[in-house]
Specification:
It is a single chain. With 275 residues, the protein is α/β, with parallel strands linked by helices. It has one domain: P-loop containing nucleotide triphosphate hydrolases (Rossmann fold). Helix content is 45%, strand content 13%. The protein has 12 helices and 7 strands. A 7-stranded mixed β-sheet has the order 3-4-2-5-1-6-7, with helices on both faces. Strand 3 and strand 4 form a beta hairpin. It is globular. Bound molecules: adenosine-5'-diphosphate (ADP) and magnesium ion. The site of magnesium ion has 5 residues, from helix 1.
Length: 275
């Protein structure tokens, strides 16, 4: 089976996109699934979380502007089965340069099409930047599936309707009519407050099938791990954050095991009503 491309996106910053990309990636890799993490955020947080120095290696931006082969950007990480296409902060201006080109929406898709067919991996996770700009929309145009991390707080819900709208626009525009909303992952849940469970219940009501059962708790270790260039499974393997991301990987694999095409398109259309 060719690699499946999954955009981890939400236009809001600080909702757990990077934490989910890195730790879901590591927990999948731990189970023998081959994962390429593509860092598409100029802040390069995924790159540094995996222990790389942003700017030290050629990044995806150079290909977005100049074209070429993506496979020679792939770095091995210290985790077997987890690979990184790094990003570098100097190229934040790339988004502006790209926007001037008529084909900006499909550039990433064009780069990733041969890579997807040829590189021996099961999944690519794209850690998207926190904006509705060219990079994020081009990730949606290149992706098979979208996973939205959503913070368990009231304003998280507002953000959700926006990203769901952008997803629909990408489908309608013809840039990528196939991309499905595969999942919503509730993050930073605080078991001491009612608000988290109220928000989770609301999201489950609107997106009953799409919302992951696994909820990521607020856990300080998840915030600390990146500064040591580690994922949660080696920084604090028994903490609640590690347990949650392992459970998320398990649920992800279960969802992708059963007749993938069918089950996902069914899930995608099971949105009960617009937000
Ligand atoms: N479940 C969590 N519990 C505690 N802190 C978290 C959790 N998830 C993320 N963080 C921290 O919150 C901040 C924002 O998370 P991050 O994954 O970088 O969000 P994004 O990529 O969406 O901007 C980071 O400092 C991160 O370490
Ligand atoms: Mg991030």
């Amino acid at each position: 089976m060719p690699m499946k491309i999954i955009a981890i996106a939400n236009q809001k910053g600080g909702v757990g996109k990077t934490t989910t990309s890195v730790n879901l990636g590591a927990c999948l890799a731990e189970r023998g699934v081959r994962v390429v993490l593509l860092d598409l955020d100029p802040q390069a947080n995924s790159t540094s979380a995996l222990g790389f120095t942003p700017g030290e290696h050629p990044s995806i931006y150079q290909r977005l502007l100049g074209g070429g082969d993506v496979s020679n950007l792939v770095m091995r990480t210290k985790y077997e089965n987890l690979f990184l296409i790094p990003c570098d902060m100097d190229l934040a201006g790339c988004e502006i340069e790209m926007a001037r080109e008529d084909d900006h929406l499909v550039r990433l898709k064009r780069l990733l099409t041969p890579f997807k067919a040829n590189f021996p991996a099961d999944y690519m996770l794209i850690d998207c930047p926190p904006s509705l700009g060219v990079l994020m929309t081009s990730a949606l145009a290149a992706a098979d599936e979208l996973i939205v991390p959503l913070q368990c707080e009231y304003f998280g819900l507002e953000g959700l309707s926006k990203i769901v709208g952008v997803h629909q626009q990408i489908r309608d525009s013809g840039a990528n009519s196939e991309v499905v909303l595969e999942g919503i992952v509730m993050t930073m849940a605080d078991s001491r407050t009612n608000l988290s469970s109220m928000v989770i219940n609301d999201v489950r009501q609107y997106f009953p099938q799409v919302t992951y059962q696994t909820v990521i708790p607020r856990n300080i270790r998840l915030g600390e791990a990146p500064s040591y260039g580690q994922t949660i499974i080696d920084y604090a393997p028994t903490c609640s954050g590690a347990i949650a991301y392992r459970a998320l990987a398990e649920e992800f694999l279960q969802r992708h095991a059963e007749a993938p095409e069918d089950s996902i398109s069914r899930r995608d259309h099971s949105v009960s009503q617009p937000l």
